[in-house]
Amino acid sequence: MSDPMFTKEKMLLLVREIAVLIDSDLSWIDPERRSDFVDRQRAERDEALDLVLAQEPSPEDLPEAERILRHLRARPVDAARADALESWMNLARRPQT
């Protein structure tokens, strides 16, 4: 995972960008294609989020993770993802031993 293309920070930014896009006004997309578009974006977001969650969290990750969590909590369909992210964030909040 040392490949700079897959750094935790880059993946967090990608997850946030996609979450913002999914929550935006997508009325400009043909209704018949909108669902497929959102599904593809959600799959890409979930893949990036899985890469993030597989890494050790740090306190520096929390501000970006909070932004992502707000987007995930806004949609009931993303509740499981939000729970996983929140658990990951809690690991970063616990005191270092």
Describe the protein:
The protein has 97 residues and is mostly helical. It has one domain (4-93). The protein is 68% helix and 0% strand. It has helices at 8-23, 31-53, 62-73, 79-93. The longest helix has 23 residues, at 31-53. The protein starts with 7 loop residues before the first helix and ends with a helix. The mean pLDDT is 91.
| Total DSSP E strands | 0
Structural class of the secondary elements?
Answer: mainly alpha
Overall mean pLDDT score? 91
Query: From the alpha-carbon coordinates, what is the Rg to the nearest angstrom?
Result: 14 Å
- Major β-sheet profile: none
Using the alpha-carbon principal axes, give the shape.
elongated
Contiguous low-pLDDT stretches (5 residues minimum) are none
Number of helices: 4
Number of domains: 1
Please state roughly what percent of the residues sit in beta strands, choosing from under 5%, 5-15%, 15-25%, 25-35%, 35-45% or over 45%. under 5%
Overall helicity: 55-70%
- N-to-C SSE series? HHHH
User: What is the terminal-to-terminal distance?
Assistant: 25 Å
Sum up the structure in keywords.
97 residues, mainly alpha, 68% helix, 0% strand
